[in-house]
Amino acid sequence: MAVDAAPIQAVRWDGRRLAVLDQTRLPHEEVWLSLTGAQDTAQAIRRLAVRGAPNIGIAAAYGLAMELSARPSLGALEAASELLSGARPTAVNLAAAVARVRTAALGAGPSTLASAARAEAQRLHADEDAASAALAAHGADVLASARTILTHCNTGALATGGRGSGLAVILELAARHEGVRVLACETRPLLQGARLTAWELTRLGIPFALIVDGAAAGLLRRGEADAVVVGCDRVAANGDVANKVGTYAHALAARAAGLPFVVAGPTSTIDLATPDGDAIEIEERDGAEVSELGGVAIAPAGTPVRNPAFDVTPAGLVTALVTERGVARDPDTASVAALAARP
Ligand SMILES: CSC[C@H]1O[C@H](OP(=O)(O)O)[C@H](O)[C@@H]1O
């Protein structure tokens, strides 16, 4: 199987402009968008041209910096911060990244708003790249005996800095051991698994099979996987995890099958200000994402739709929370706080 040695990059900063690989066009076309400020960056985030909790934070950080380069004023800073933070509600990384760059800009003073914002955005991006490598090592330690891993959505370099979160753990496992392979859930309705994880694993030369989401529980029960590894969009203070819709079902199935359910993500996805999963806002997206496929209706006209884009997995179903700062096994309030506090 062809392996592309070149690392996958979803966002590229040239010091002035942000280019993002338009993920709505993958896997059939590799189209790069050149973003210029808060408006087009927020729009790219809303339509998942750039996606994944860490990567939407990185994009928003650069979007704010570009906005200030064009309009270096406190008014532009506040307006752009509000626009970018509100692009999507569930992933804590988005608002946290904007707040981090806003704070750096305010701390620099009026004449250096833009340069301070650019520098902080680049630091944030570097932090996420480093976090990916470190969490991959911790995750591969936790899952040392696992060879077939079931995963959901897309948690590779298309979603985070570096090589990803969940997929980075799998890549590290494959680097350490023979025989690592993946069961990739297609992840309805936007098919991040079928379109993006399949594209990444093919380029990386990792053996995998694509499955429909509904097949996961039965395959786990039959012992056709050794573990489930997923990403995260927000980890509440008590260890509850918000992630792509369908994750909770996999956690229940893994527990029923006696298999480890591992959540991998950088500590930038931990939100100690949110006490538990019930306090996490779940993004409700356009019903057409469910009732249409490729712009073609798959349900009768006027079919009522619910389209929650995420769900919450209670901490009690999480075997281990893997971050760049270490691992919380059976995560709870104390162990999540300890992870977040580590240098
Ligand atoms: C490793 S990124 C975390 C998370 O982001 C994805 O959501 P989306 O594609 O809607 O941005 C998915 O929940 C991933 O697990």
What's the SSE blueprint?
Layout: E1 11-13, E2 18-21, E3 32-35, H1 38-46, H2 53-70, H3 74-85, H4 92-108, H5 113-142, E4 148-151, H6 166-176, E5 181-185, H7 192-204, E6 208-211, H8 216-221, E7 227-230, E8 234-236, E9 241-244, H9 247-257, E10 261-264, E11 270-271, H10 288-291, E12 292-293, E13 296-297, E14 310-313, E15 320-323, E16 326-329, H11 333-341
Parallel strand pairs: 4-5, 4-7, 5-6, 7-10, 8-11, 10-15
Antiparallel strand pairs: 1-2, 2-3, 8-9, 9-14, 12-13, 15-16
Helix pairs in contact: 1-2, 1-3, 2-3, 2-4, 2-5, 3-4, 4-5, 5-6
The structure holds ligand LNRAV4D5.
The ligand CSC[C@H]1O[C@H](OP(=O)(O)O)[C@H](O)[C@@H]1O is lined by residues 48, 51-53, 153, 155, 159-160, 165, 192, 230-233, 243-244, 309.
